[in-house]
Design a protein that fits this description.
single chain, mainly alpha, 17 helices, 4 strands, elongated
Length: 454
């Protein structure tokens, strides 16, 4: 089974690699054919491309900018390689625990029987073996001496002599002992109880009735999927951190590159600054949402294929909350990164801006991972769950832990939406005033002054 699980992941990676290679080869062949033909025939649009064109037509100039961003990002090698790495990482996080869990399957314990073994005693041995995840195989031995020789030869792991004595070749405490210590202790204990029943004068029917007694039901007051929820929350937080930093950095670098190459001047001659900025964040956000949906769907498919318990106990509301907060987190930070990118025009300036911008993301991520691992949220953590910069991590962690009510979740969402609207208005003002200013880095103090920049 382990080889099958590993084969699934490897086969998927190879199939995806072959698919991308064939697409690149088909694109090269199409370009070569177009170069050799004076009037190349128009190639029909794919269904995905037709949907993008429909969205562009519906949104106007903003849709045109968003479609341009979507095509550029999807065609980029960084996006494809990053997607493959994330899919492989998620697949490994699901498959490896399933393999380890599968490694704890039933072990075989060969039990030699000397003398008679009553049906009650046989039932006791089988029940103890099942409880210890052992498959018990009985073999008849003619005498105690034959059982000792079989133990030394390794043909059996333990021997029962007249249901009153257990023989072992080595103590169960030894590292190389073939006998399962749990099986030996359980059989020794319960066969002693069986002897006590017989010594008390119980008939075989009464003994069988006592042995087959069913345990009383056990009911827990809280859900037993805490570990599953914690694992799901940790995976969600890691993916959210990775995707927020990746896509927001794309916006930061993209705005800087357009400004430094003077492409933005051509674009602003056709669309307004707010339309250009809105189309950029909308297009990159659509790519981020599509990638997140692909990862979640892939995780569910792989988890179902290998029978993993990692996502089986996760409630749908937890997964939806992670996806919603990814969208809200991106909606808040994309405007901040875009405004910062409009004030820079060199790579070293971008690196200077990236660290302070990522500090709130790092704070929310580290604090949330620590809280999810401990299972309890402090008062400060609950306050951070209502602040737009840290709410995407903190509130989703509270939902995963089951420590957030519906009205607290809605209140945090409303505060994040209000904070995003205010941030978007501020970012649009900064972008409009700074994106055409070249020659030096624009400081925020200059942007915030009344009047236009010179």
């Amino acid at each position: 089974m382990k080889g099958a699980y590993i084969g699934i992941v490897v086969a998927f990676a190879l199939a995806l690699r072959v698919f991308l290679y064939r697409r690149r080869r088909a694109a090269r062949q199409a370009r070569d054919a177009g170069a050799s033909s004076a009037t190349p025939a128009p190639r029909p649009l794919r269904p995905g491309a037709r949907r993008v064109r429909a969205v562009e037509a519906a949104l106007g100039d903003v849709g045109l900018v968003a479609g341009r961003e979507i095509r550029e990002r999807i065609k980029g090698r960084i996006f494809r390689v990053g997607t493959i790495i994330m899919l492989l990482g998620v697949g490994a996080a699901i498959v490896i625990p399933a393999i380890n869990q599968g490694g704890s399957s039933l072990t075989t314990q060969r039990v030699g029987v000397v003398g008679a073994l009553s049906p009650s005693a046989r039932s006791v041995v089988l029940a103890v073996g099942k409880a210890n995840q052992d498959k018990v195989l009985f073999s008849s031995e003619p005498s105690s001496g034959a059982a000792r020789r079989a133990l030394k030869a390794g043909r059996i792991d333990l021997a029962l002599v007249d249901s009153r004595e257990i023989l072992l070749e080595k103590p169960t405490s030894a590292n190389n002992s073939p006998a399962d210590s749990g099986l030996v202790q359980g059989v020794s204990q319960y066969l002693g109880v069986l002897d006590a029943y017989q010594a008390a004068g119980l008939t075989p029917g009464q003994v069988s009735r006592v042995i087959k007694a069913k345990p009383i039901p056990v009911h827990a007051l809280t859900s037993g999927t805490k570990g599953v929820k914690q694992a799901t929350s940790v995976i969600g937080l890691v993916l959210m951190f990775f995707m927020l930093t990746q896509y927001c950095t794309w916006i930061l670098i993209g705005v800087m590159q357009e400004k430094s190459s003077r492409v933005v001047e051509v674009l602003l001659a056709m669309v307004r600054p707010l339309q250009l900025l809105g189309g950029k964040v909308l297009g990159i956000g659509a790519v981020a949402l599509g990638q997140a949906t692909l990862i979640v769907g892939f995780a569910l498919v792989v988890g179902a294929a290998v029978g993993s318990d990692l996502l089986k106990g996760a409630e749908p509301v937890t997964l939806l909350a992670e996806l919603l907060w990814l969208v809200l987190g991106y909606a808040f930070y994309c405007w901040v990164y875009a405004a910062a990118g409009s004030t820079a025009e060199r790579q070293d300036q971008v690196q200077t801006l990236a660290l302070p911008l990522s500090l709130p993301i790092l704070l929310g991520y580290i604090f949330s991972i620590t809280t999810v691992s401990s299972g309890s949220a402090s008062g400060l953590f609950k306050v951070l769950a209502y602040l737009p910069p840290t709410a995407p991590f903190c509130m989703s962690a509270l939902v995963g832990l089951g420590q957030a009510s519906w009205w607290e979740f809605v209140l945090s969402v409303l505060l994040s939406v209000a904070g995003t609207v205010g941030t978007a208005l501020f970012a649009a003002r900064v972008y409009r005033r700074a994106v055409l200013r070249t020659g030096t880095r624009v400081r925020f103090s200059e942007v915030l002054r009344k009047g236009r920049l010179a």
